[in-house]
Amino acid sequence: MKSQSKSNEDELDILAQADINQSVVDSIVERHKDIEQTLEQERQLYLDLANAQPTGVYRLRVFRSNKYDETKWRSSSDAPYIVEFANTRFCELLNMGLEKFQENPAIINDLIFEPDKESFIQKNIESNRDLMPFVWEGRLSVRNEIIWGHFESTPRPIPNGDVIWTGAFFDITKRKKEQQEIQAKNRELQMVNAEKDKFFSIIAHDLKSPFNAIIGFTKLLLDEIRLNNIEGIEKYAEIVLDSSNSAFDLLTNLMSWARSQTGRLTFKPESFDLLELINESKNVFSHIAEGKKIDIRVDIDTELPVCADISMISTVLRNLISNAIKFTHSGGQIIIRSEQLAHHLKVVVSDNGIGITESVIDKLFRIDEKYSTSGTQNEQGTGLGLILCKDFVERHEGQIWAESSEGLGSNFIFTLKNPKP
User: Fold this and answer.
1) Three-state SS for 30?
2) Separation between Cα atoms, residue 408 and residue 170, nearest integer Å
3) CA 21, 22, 27, 31: dihedral to nearest 10 degrees?
4) How far apart are alpha carbons 397 and 204 in whole angstroms?
5) Is 72 helix (H, G, I), strand (E, B) or coil?
6) Residue 143, by phi and psi: left (phi above 0), alpha (psi -120 to 50) or beta?
7) CATH fold of 270-421, please?
8) Which of 118, 148, 260, 318 could bridge to 265 as Cys pair (CB 3.0-4.6 Å)?
9) What are phi and psi of 408, to 5 degrees?
10) Residues 6+ away with beta carbon under 8 Å from 261
């Protein structure tokens, strides 16, 4: 009986011990589950944080055996690395699914804009060779558009000789465009300033000439007055008058141009009959034209309704008519005509004067080019009038140009937009 009792007790001890071991196992299993759940929660947290970044984030593993092989860095199908991670933003910026990128990491070479590809490849090779941070800016072709990207990543060697690269990719297209616009504006400003510097040096030179003539011939005029030489007095007085008129015309145009460039010349379009303004401008020069026996004819037989700044268009007409008289021989003819186009009114001031060579025509409306020549009776010009005409016509969204042949006369043409009904 005692032996049977002992056997029962052993069995109970074994069962109790088994219950204890199972409890320990269950406890360990539960702890493992808690740890796995915590790790999963943390993994999901870090994944959410990475995917919430406004920049692309990635992690690459460059294999030890391939990192110096230039052919692999140039490949579009056999990359020397694998993609271990890329966040959602990285895939969005490059318009590529993560699985596709992981299947063929070298596809990124195909995205680099061809002119920038060599610098991208060389930078990869150098950074892996020297284990230095990879920093590269360049253009990529994404969605059939060119974008600017900035890569920045740092290396971390691991014991087996591979290198882990963790980096970020930024879309800097907007910043690059702004920089390019600023650079373009700076170049434009530098060019404009250079043109204006040259222009003012030309004006300074042109102002000296008439004033030197006025001062010099005024002294001669005083001498003739002392000698009571009426013929000499009249001759020098005419020269002084011509020089004074030339200086006055230059100053008038210069002030108008300066006001237009500094924004002090207000653009005030209004409706009026251009034919009436043409006739008024013609009458301003009637006495000068009569003195040279030049016939000015307005070949327009209908009203020309326009919406424009009367003062500016008047300045344009006066300069063009004055130039035509200046370069037309005695007994010549000037014709002012118009042509109604679909969206514009074209006005032409024609003369049968000395004409202009083709090489000079391109210089007529440029502020950085000096072109001024004497008229058929040695009338002096400044070259500023046509620059002013160009400025005023373009303010009306029109165009102005010249057509001419040397010895056969010239046509100066400008357009104005038709007024809206």
Assistant:
1) helix
2) 64
3) 100
4) 31
5) helix
6) left
7) Heat Shock Protein 90 (3.30.565)
8) 260
9) -120, 5
10) 391
**Matching residue, tokens 């702004």:** 178
| Nearest-angstrom CA–CA distance, 118 and 69 | 15
Domain covering 174-265, topology = Helix Hairpins (1.10.287)
Give the integer Cα–Cα distance in Å for 365 and 356.
Answer: 13
CATH code that applies to domain 56-171: 3.30.450.20
- What six digits make up the tokens of 135? 């920093």
- Report field, pTM of the whole predicted structure over 0.70: no
Q: DSSP per residue over 249-308, as a string?
A: HHHHHHHHHHHHHTT-S----EEEEHHHHHHHHHHHTHHHHHHTT-EEEE---S--EEEE
| Structure confidence by residue, pLDDT tens digits, 14-66 | 655 666 666 766 777 777 777 777 777 777 776 677 677 788 999 999 998 87
Rg (CA), the chain: 43
Hey, what amino acid is at 43?
A: R
pLDDT tens digits for 323-347?
898 889 888 999 999 998 888 999 9
